[in-house]
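User: structure tokens for this one?
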Amino acid sequence: MTAQKFFGLSRDVDVQGFGELRGGHLGVRIATTPAEIDAVQALRYRVFFEEMGAVPDADARAIRRDRDAFDAVADHLIVVDHEIGSGAEGVVGTYRLIQRHAAAQVGRFYSSDEYDIARILQFPGQVLELGRSCVDAAHRSRAVMQLMWRGIAAYVFCHKIDLMFGCASLPGTDPDALAPELSYLYYHHLAPPAFRPRAIESRYIKMRRISPAQLDRRRALAQLPPLIKGYLRLGGFVGDGAVIDPQFNTTDVAIVVKSDLITDKYYRHYERQLREALF
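Assistant:
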């Protein structure tokens, strides 16, 4: 237990977790059992490989699971539909959360396969990598996404996270087809140099594909995936350069969010619920 200041009160907070936050029949919390992590991996397989066209390797195809070495060291945020069940059977959404000490067990962060994140690793404070986010097709709603962000906000507070980062995807592997979106992100949301990731040189795809004068900002913003728009609404930034991920049939961009932006927004809006959940 550690004493932290929350809503003006100094209280003991269990930094290993924040319990469960509820929104009607939905709840968000950290997975606590092997069965729940297995349900997360099954959900990711259904969304990424069966729905979105990612290409599984032989092992993934055989077990119908999306899993890798990072799953064993990560915390897995899950959304549970209690009308289906309160355990693994009710998992309908997930986010993978990797702290610095967890990444050290693997030897790297997941994002380092695509981006030079040296400046993030030098950031003075706790950092958190976000990734592998998905929601079951029947549960994609604003309520579910808001609940996931509430869970992330509570996790960030409990673990004193200062900076969040990760890769977010645009559909398809043709950067010219994504020229408006990539150009918009570069011109209007490029991260400050102090913590700006840059795509690894061998995988670097130029984002400046349309001149600012030719860019329809409103249309480009509207065409962005909801998750990326959510990061931008929180004041998030992007790194320099996109990366093609042929296995997942996506074009990736690096995302960086200072954690006070998300915690301020969600603590103000959900003060009562978070107070009850944490204390």
